[in-house]
Design a protein that fits this description.
Radius of gyration: 18 Å
Order of helices and strands: EHEHEHEHEHHEHHHE
CATH architecture of the largest domain: 3-Layer(aba) Sandwich
Helix content: 40-55%
Strand order of the largest sheet: 3-2-1-4-5-6-7
Largest sheet: 7 strands, parallel
Number of domains: 2
Structural class: alpha/beta
Number of helices: 9
Bound molecules: nicotinamide-adenine-dinucleotide
Oligomer: single chain
Distance between the termini: 31 Å
CATH topology of the largest domain: Rossmann fold
Strand content: 5-15%
CATH class of the largest domain: Alpha Beta
CATH superfamily of the largest domain: NAD(P)-binding Rossmann-like Domain
Amino acid sequence: MKGRTAIITGGVQGIGLEVARKLASAGVNLVLADVNAAAGEAASKELSASTPAKFALTDLTNQDSVRDLVGVTIAEFGAIDYFVNCAAILDDKTFEESSPRDWQRMFDVCLLGPMYCLHDVLPVMKKQKFGRIVCFSSDSARIGQARLSYYAAAKAGVTALVKSIAQEVGPDGITANIVSPGATNTPMRMDREASLREQMGEEKYARREQAVQRAYPLRRIGEPSDVAPTVTFLLSDGAAWITGQVVSVNGGFTML
Ligand SMILES: NC(=O)c1ccc[n+]([C@@H]2O[C@H](COP(=O)([O-])OP(=O)(O)OC[C@H]3O[C@@H](n4cnc5c(N)ncnc54)[C@H](O)[C@@H]3O)[C@@H](O)[C@H]2O)c1
């Protein structure tokens, strides 16, 4: 993997940052794309100690911003070998509580965002006759999840998108796969848990937490370090004949 170039959206915290750390240790050139400038600067500073790493302030909901991201990556490294889409948002509401504005924002970030990226990244990969794409979905997209309906719907869209693209670009030496994590301790999950804890109170929240862990055959919530190795494998030469697949990394929460 040494000398390859990766774009990682949402690569400044959580699972994306852990993927970036793994790729940095393999000598991959990194471009981290995110709306969070402070976390982006800190992450690129950390990673620059082991590999060329750049932060590109990018809003995935803005097509011009995504164009700039692709342009900056080519100008800096001359290639895009790996594209990993981790960036996402979460909303904790029942469908009835939510509004069309909530749905639009979710679809803009979680579905249109990776679509803008892939639309601009694929021509580069096709020219190279090489590319590896990994997009993140969620187990909620596979089995549904109360209070996450439109997040789950957007993520199901990502799965369908990536599988379809995998069929179109396979002949060009490009693989495209989906990683579907179960609950993983990242800022995304921690924020949601903090608000649930506040709403429920300590006792009810503790009971809920035990029930969640019982739903996992491996009896624990995941860490970013549980998920990142699957991503690096799907980017590696060892995964050259794997495409259009959904890989659940979830402590056995779903077994589909
Ligand atoms: N953590 C979990 O329990 C869990 C479970 C299932 C799926 N996932 C999926 O895994 C992936 C990584 O999740 P995580 O928990 O590490 O998330 P996270 O919230 O910790 O990180 C997501 C990143 O996306 C960035 N982002 C949000 N909107 C953006 C935009 N418009 N443009 C650019 N960047 C933007 C955020 O700033 C943040 O840095 C996500 O796709 C998420 O949906 C996570």
